[in-house]
């Protein structure tokens, strides 16, 4: 795996963290992160942009799970969800079996959508798959708050893209120059699910999401920017392996991440930490598997889950570059609320 050492190394690393391939117009936390997601062959409605998991600010007994897809919704397409596809939020929890051994159980909140009507409204069905089978939890329409019996709430539709970053400043390698959030005014298609934390079974859980079409996993995500930063192609890797590697990551399972992608993570981290720094192994173990870890009893933000206003770019810049780059000097400018569905309205 190729490494480089230039005056602009930190600048390149910062660019890679956010958007990877400069040819793609909206690279970010996970926007358009792989060729399999982009037109003409891919469907951006199946492209996961961000995942959030946090304690509800209006009810500390609840957990909010948000799955955003479809970057530039309303620009690249009409902002609807793909009929026939499955949008899945997976919650992993540890529990003891009958012999006291720890095992991982996965709850899957699975959403499916009907065809859009003339007003672009779609029917939506929420199912839960757990150890007892698959259950329909709620049905309704996009653009409406849907109550889930037992205390939950669901809403799916187009919202303001909550991701914030000054892409133009980074493209000009003019860090922290006066500028604005590139994603201001752009929208995504969002699924907002709030459930009692007791439904998740324990305080400490792992959260990741995926999109599935015709039985094939199209995209997946846990932590922000894992595929964008560490999986070839990035500025430190040859171009030839990029399509298969990025698509392979999106098609993979978190349980195999250490086996399949640890080498790529270590390779990039060693550029900033060196080959013999034990921090590299610790960070590789922290970053993989690609699952967002959450203590639902805590209101702390990223890396405990991820809140809407958490500045994940600043946090990960410092982490990945060993403190060489610590901020993009851009703050959140979305009008989040403290009540469901929390996201700012569509632009």
Describe this structure in words.
The protein is of the alpha+beta class and 347 residues long. The chain has one domain (9-320). It has 7 helices and 12 strands. It has helices at 9-19, 167-171, 226-230, 242-251, 257-273, 278-287, 312-320, and strands at 48-55, 62-69, 85-96, 102-113, 123-130, 133-141, 146-148, 152-160, 187-196, 204-213, 216-221, 292-295. The strands form 2 sheets. Strands 3, 4, 5, 6, 10, 11 and 12 form a 7-stranded antiparallel β-sheet that branches. It has a 5-stranded antiparallel β-sheet with strand order 1-2-9-8-7, with no helix packed on it. Strand 7 and strand 8 form a beta hairpin. Helix 5 (257-273) packs across helix 6 (278-287). The protein is globular. The N and C termini lie far apart (42 Å). 46% of the residues are buried. Mean pLDDT is 85; it is low at 1-26 and 234-243.
**Unreliably modeled segments:** 1-26, 234-243
Number of helices: 7
Overall residue-averaged pLDDT value:
85
Helix content: 10-25%
**Integer tally of domains:** 1
**Which strand-content bin applies to the residues?**
25-35%
Tell how many strands the DSSP assignment holds. 12
Q: Kindly, what is the distance between the CA atoms of the first and last residues, rounded to a whole number of angstroms? A: 42 Å
Sheet with most strands:
7 strands, antiparallel
The sequence of SSEs as H and E is HEEEEEEEEHEEEHHHHEH
**Radius of gyration over all CA atoms, rounded:** 19 Å
